[in-house]
Specification:
WH_DNA-bd_sf, two-stranded antiparallel ribbon, MarR family transcriptional regulator, Arc Repressor Mutant, subunit A, WH-like_DNA-bd_sf, 143 residues, mainly alpha, 2 strands, single chain
Length: 143
């Protein structure tokens, strides 16, 4: 692929945006003692307490094995808790602790500041169109 082809490739530009967003989030979250996957996990648990490891992995776009590592780190830091045994089946529902909620609250402000900066170069109508277009693109790819 030539440089001109790269510059006009939607996929390449999306990856460039994703990479820049991830770098900005990693830097901001480091100040809160969190990684981006840990933050995603905390956000998911705040919205839907009791999710299983598999549900969290899907929502955070990581493998189940990676989510096990994420959860172990969050547990060791007292940010989430899981029962020792499943009430039914094999899934161990995960919940935020009070410290997890507080850490999420503080990190949330920084992450949303990054989002505002990212879309701040566009007017609100363009942001709405971009969101709708990206949603359609993801659905078109089965995601």
């Amino acid at each position: 692929m030539t440089q001109d082809e790269l510059d006009t490739s939607v996929g390449y530009v999306l990856k460039r945006v994703q990479s820049a967003l991830r770098a900005a989030m990693d830097a901001a979250l480091r100040e809160h003692g969190l990684t981006t996957p840990q933050y995603a996990c905390l956000e998911l648990l705040d919205q839907r307490p009791g999710l299983s490891n598999a549900d969290l992995a899907r929502g955070a776009f990581v493998s189940r094995q990676s989510m096990n590592v994420v959860l172990r780190g969050l547990e060791e830091n007292g940010l989430v808790e899981r029962p020792a045994q499943a009430a039914q089946g094999r899934a161990l529902p995960v919940r935020l602790t009070a410290e997890g909620r507080e850490r999420l609250r503080r990190a949330h402000a920084d992450v949303f500041a990054i989002e505002r900066r990212m879309v701040g170069v566009l007017d609100p109508e363009r942001v709405a169109l971009l969101r709708a277009d990206l949603t359609r693109i993801a659905e078109g790819l089965g995601g």
